[in-house]
Design brief:
Blueprint lengths: L2 H21 L4 H12 L9 H14 L3 E5 L5 H7 L7 E6 L2 H13 L6 E5 L2 H10 L7 E4 L6 H10 L6 E5 L15 H15 L3 E10 L2 E10 L2
Parallel strand pairs: 1-2, 1-4, 2-3, 4-5
Antiparallel strand pairs: 5-7, 6-7
Length: 228
């Protein structure tokens, strides 16, 4: 990375730190979750603290009692989301990697959230039909942060497992700007573009997306409301 490229990244990170310190300060459970994830060798791709706080506030504003998370990693975002639930609420988080899922379960238990948060292991596209079969929905909020090539299918499943008024959030939708590339070679960008096409044409969804810069670089989120 050139010096000129480093300068905006450093400033983005500094602004993130300033905002996080003021508005989303870490606590013991969040700090321990990140430390445990690092110790277990998980990739450092969890949402930033201020993004975790945004998810928490979205769930609170939504009055969510049931939340579905697709992609758990070490449970950092799960903690933010589960903390927004009432005592009788429920979060189900789906994680492909059993080792990641075990770290997340321990992190949620340490945070005192294991009574409301459950981590299920396996490919999400195998687990989602099981949730439908057992009548686990409708979910008030769905957060999608898993393998990006399957984003369209995850949104399709989110629609099947929600109701009018539910909110669907998809992370990492700008991908450093590569989302503009109509001829993108990587599956993550192609999957993200297909997801945007799906959301744009589906009359059941009212959505927007926005760019973010910060400690996670240049990316963004999509937020959609199920309207019918």
């Amino acid at each position: 990375m050139t010096q000129n490229a480093q300068e905006p990244q450093a400033r983005w990170s500094a602004v993130d730190a300033y905002l996080t310190d003021l508005l989303a300060p870490a606590d013991d459970a969040l700090t321990a979750a990140l430390a445990a994830s690092d110790e277990a060798g998980l990739p450092q791709i969890a949402v930033a603290p201020n993004q975790g706080k945004l998810l928490h506030l979205l769930a609170r504003v939504q009055g969510a009692r049931t939340i579905l998370e697709i992609g758990t990693l070490g449970g950092y975002s799960s903690i933010w989301l589960a903390r927004a639930l009432p005592a009788d609420g429920r979060l189900i988080s789906l994680e492909y990697d059993p080792a990641h899922a075990e770290v997340a379960r321990l992190n949620l238990a340490r945070a005192g959230l294991d009574a409301v948060a459950e981590v299920r292991t396996g490919a999400a596209l195998d687990t989602l039909p099981k949730l439908e079969a057992e009548g686990a929905g409708p979910f008030d909020l769905v957060f999608v942060d898993a393998d990006k090539k399957n984003n369209p299918r995850y949104v399709e499943w989110a629609l099947r497992l929600t109701r009018p008024g539910s909110v669907i959030v998809v992370d990492n939708v700008v991908r450093g700007g590569t989302v503009l590339d109509e001829e993108a070679a990587d599956e993550a960008t192609r999957g993200t573009r297909a997801m945007f096409d799906l959301v744009a044409r589906d009359p059941r969804l009212d959505a927007t997306a926005f760019q973010t810069v910060g400690v996670k670089g240049h990316d963004g989120m999509l937020v959609a409301r199920v309207v019918s």
